[in-house]
Every structure is written in structure tokens, then in C-alpha cells.
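ingest -> validate -> predict -> emit
validate: passed (alphabet ok, no gaps, 298 aa)
predict: started
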Amino acid sequence: MPTDEITAAAAGTWTLGDRPVHRMGFGSMRITANPDRDRAVALLRRAVELGVNHIDTAAFYVSPGGTLRVGTGPVRYATELIRAALAPYREDLVIVTKVGFGYDPEAGFTEALTPAQLRAQVEENLRRLGRDHLEVVNLRLGRGPGTVPLVDRFGALAELRAAGLIRHLGLSNVRPEQLDEVAGIAPVVCVQNNYGVDAYREQDAFVRACGERGIAYVPFFALAGTGREAGASAAQGEAVEAVARAHGVTGHQVRLAWTLHQGPHVLAIPGTADPTHLEQNIAAGALTLTPEELKNLT
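emit:
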């Protein structure tokens, strides 16, 4: 697929909270892997040039170590790279971050459970991004039930929202019943879960339910699938490859197009540190799949 002149606008728009964003966004986790800081800054600026106005990040996206467990050289936080590349921020740019997990070079990953711990993580994001408020904050849940009730943790963030430090709230790594648990505390504008064409398809009904409630569904690892932090496999599967051949595109572009076809409320946040892949990812927003192709990918 030619990528010339294709921008993130080709994917359409969705109102996230109260801000319109292009449905093709950018995930910032992988930009920390390369020790060349200038390349990450240039990539972020190129993403915005190509119409991206929705960037996903977290203060625990850091290398060396961190989520990716890779890297050498000086410490590189995705949030600080975003600030270096894009501040002062454009009015239409929505930066979505997450709390609930943190990363300490000495202690490793930590979980924020108390109001004080959650506030500290919010303040860390504010400091590293150079903002006086955060547009959207997702509460990232662990795999287990947790030692502190969800309503207490979400309620602590709702208080920070009332204080003006956060504008909108979301949830990440969440089950449908947990979304219902917090419904009366504060509005949830997005759900961010692991989901893709061949990963966690048991969430299909949840994806539709979010759309019915006007909540954005934002899959992470839509390209990597069960590979998660390790990245996308070169082997895409025959169903994906067949569609890719028919359209003259890559398997990764088919995966992103499939993601966007799951509903107008579904937002894509593919991450990459490669400028060519960035352009290919954004161009996938213009790829239309037929009902038969979508059926074959199910």
C-alpha cells in the first residue's frame, strides 16, 4: 500500500473524553529501546506530522530495564522523550498515561495501591511530561484481585480528577464486571486491554459492550498479540497473510485494519521505533477489509 499523503485522519475520529482524536494513534513504549535519544524525538515529531493526536504512554516506560527489559546507556523515559519532542504541546494533542504500576531501577516494578502512592505516580507523570494536568489517566490493574478494593483505588483517582490534576479516567487490564464496579464513582472514557485478531478474542463481547456505552476500547499489543513486550512475530498466520497478499500490504497492516474494523469506538495505538513502520502503521488506517475477509480473520 502506498503511504504517501496518508495520515492518521484516514482512520476516522472518536471523541475521547471530550476531545476528538484520530483513531490511529501511537504507543510510546518502544521508543525507549534505542539509546539514540534524537531518533526517538524525531520519530515522535514525525508521528504528529502524520496526523497522530493520541499518544499512549506511562512513566514506567523506561529503558534500560523497564517494561522491555532491554537497552544500554543513559536512562530514557518515554514521558520525557515526549516532552522533549512535542512541548509546548499542540491544543489537539491528547496524551494518555497510566498509573497503578511503577518502575524503580533498584526495586523493579511496584504497584500503587494507596491514595498517596497513586498521587505520587500522577505527579511523576505531570513532572516528566511537563504538564499541569493529565488529559486521560488509566488505572492499570494487576492480574489478581489486588489487596485494595478497586473502588478505593479508582475513587482516589476520582478525587484527583475533582482537584483538576486529571481530566478523564480510564481502566486498563480490566474485566467487564470491574467496569460496572466503578460506574457510580466517575465516568470511564476508555478501556485499554490486550486484544488482537488472534489474541484474547474472548473479549469480543466486551469490545461491543464498550461501544454501546460510548466508551473507547483501546487494544494494546494489537500487533504483538501474545508476544506482548517481545514484539510482533514475523509469522503472521495464513489467514492474515492471505488478506495481506490480496491488498498488497503487510500482515501488520492487516492486523491494524482489523482492529479498527471492530467498531468506531476502537482506537489503535501501535508502537514502533522505526520510521518506515510508523508510516506503514498510519497508512493501515486507510485499508478497508471486506465482510468476507473479516469473517476469514475471525
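The CA atoms of residues 28 and 57 lie 5 Å apart.
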